Amino acid sequence: MKTYTLTLSRNFPATHPRKGEETGFIDNILAFKKIHTIRSNYEFWRKRFDEIEKGNAYLSLRYWEGKPYRSNQVEFKRLIKEDGIGLQCIDLSIFSDLGLCFLNTKNSAKRISPICIAKNDGLSSNDFRKWFKNYSLNEPMAIIHFTKFRY
User: Fold this and answer.
1) Residue 108 DSSP label
2) Is 150 within the bounds of a domain?
3) Residue 151 falls within a domain, yes or no?
């Protein structure tokens, strides 16, 4: 079985005003309070989730033991398709302008409150905006769900 790694931050990155402070992501995932994460490169994740859906792979949730990319990763949870994990495509390109997020489905787009998305991502609305301010939002992003919840 293939292992697909998803590394989560224990601390806010240097590009965030709260740099170095704890995010609480790990505890909140384990307590089902952070029920998804948003990542760039939707197509990359879609291919991985195709393999997970077929039962050929699992998702390994990890954090860095020390400094990111300079220390070992620690696995804290494994997720398989039976856990209800899933993937949705989201367009955050107009988030900062209109305060809206759009979830792209096969034939339509669904408007979603950014406050709801931020909360389910384990962040305040303000921290969410600042987290994604340096991302290129011209391409669709991936919402990686850790539970059966979907928008």
Assistant:
1) -
2) no
3) no
Structure tokens at 134: 């340096």
Phi-psi category of 55—alpha, beta or left, where left has phi over 0 and alpha has psi -120 to 50? left
Cα–Cα–Cα angle for 21, 9, 93, rounded to 5 degrees: 100
Which residue, among 16, 48, 51, 47, has the nearest Cα to 131 in the 3D structure?
16
Taking residue 119's Cβ as centre, other Cβ atoms within 10 Å add up to 16
Q: pLDDT digits over 117-143, tens only?
A: 999 999 998 898 889 887 777 788 899
Q: How many helices (H) and strands (E) does the chain have?
A: 5, 8
Q: How far apart are CA 84 and CA 2, in angstroms?
A: 18
Helix (H/G/I), strand (E/B), else coil: 21: coil
- Give the domain extent around 81: 2-145
Please give the model's pTM, rounded to 2 decimal places.
0.90
Q: How many domains does the structure of the chain reveal?
A: 1
